[in-house]
Amino acid sequence: MTDVIRTHAPSGNRAKSRRPSRALRLRDFPGVAPISIIALVFLYIPIVITTIYAFNDGDSALVWKGFSVRWFAEVAQNQNLVSAVMVSLQIAIVATAASTVFSILFALSVERLRARGSAIATAILSAPLVIPEIVLAVATLGFIRLIGLQPGMLALILAHTSFCIPFALMPIRARLKGLGTTYFEAATDLGASNWQMFRRVTLPLLTPGIISGAILAFVISLDDFIISNFLSSAGSTPLPVFLFSLIRRGASPAVNVVATMLLVLAIVVTTITFLQSQRRSKQND
């Protein structure tokens, strides 16, 4: 017995003396660091330049003539630009609300399907993520012509709602998958009806995913150009289409001002969402 113990003791000591594997560091991948720096510079330097030249006093978008905020006042007084902003906001708000509600209902209903049916339904609904947008634009324009609908506000809202659904669905579906079935089984055991379960359990737990999906859908709708360009008409020109027309006539600091304002809006919305998620995490802890 002593010989057996002595025989196996060294192997046990060797097992205990094994060091954990060294964590991989950026220097272990030569070339990744400079490529990452170049990518970040290429991504963010244009944004910084655009923001700086929004305060340009000259009439050219890329020729610095001095610091001024006069272009902010001119943008606020440009009725065509303000109208384009309002059109984009109206479309984005309606499309976000409709796509988010539909995504919630779809996510809840698809969970009751069998695995194969659930995968097929999700693949069909997520098709706009992989179909080229130019194809969607041409197909949507042909379809609204076929049903007798003219390009304009209603066509834009319907199209934006359709292609925003997959973007709103992804965070909601991921959140629902991460919840599991424990909460719902507990609510059922306590005698909660379907409506009570939805209002008091499902909806509060899905709130982070709903907010993320709504923000993503809003940004996608506000940013869309190709489909909006195909379906816009006089009096219903979204902001991206209007900005493109401005650039074709000659870039002015007004374009930089609008881009800067949209950037500030995105930063504010992202910050508020992040702070709310952090507060909910602390409350849950």
UniProtKB/TrEMBL annotation:
Domain of life, per UniProt, equals Bacteria
Residues folding into a coiled coil are: none
Instruction: List each copy of the ABC transmembrane type-1 domain by range.
Output: 85-273
| Compartments (UniProt record) | Cell inner membrane; Cell membrane
Q: Which residues cross the membrane?
A: 32-55, 81-108, 120-147, 153-172, 201-220, 226-247, 254-275
Membrane topology qualifier: Multi-pass membrane protein
Q: Name one GO cellular component term.
A: plasma membrane
Entry-linked InterPro entries: Bact_Polyamine_Transport, MetI-like, MetI-like_sf
Q: Which UniProt keywords apply?
A: Cell inner membrane, Cell membrane, Membrane, Transmembrane, Transmembrane helix, Transport
Function, please? Required for the activity of the bacterial periplasmic transport system of putrescine and spermidine.
PANTHER family from the xrefs?
PUTRESCINE TRANSPORT SYSTEM PERMEASE PROTEIN POTI, SPERMIDINE_PUTRESCINE TRANSPORT SYSTEM PERMEASE PROTEIN POTC
Output this protein's name: Spermidine/putrescine transport system permease protein PotC
Its source organism is: Leucobacter edaphi
Q: From which lineage does this chain's organism come?
A: Bacteria, Bacillati, Actinomycetota, Actinomycetes, Micrococcales
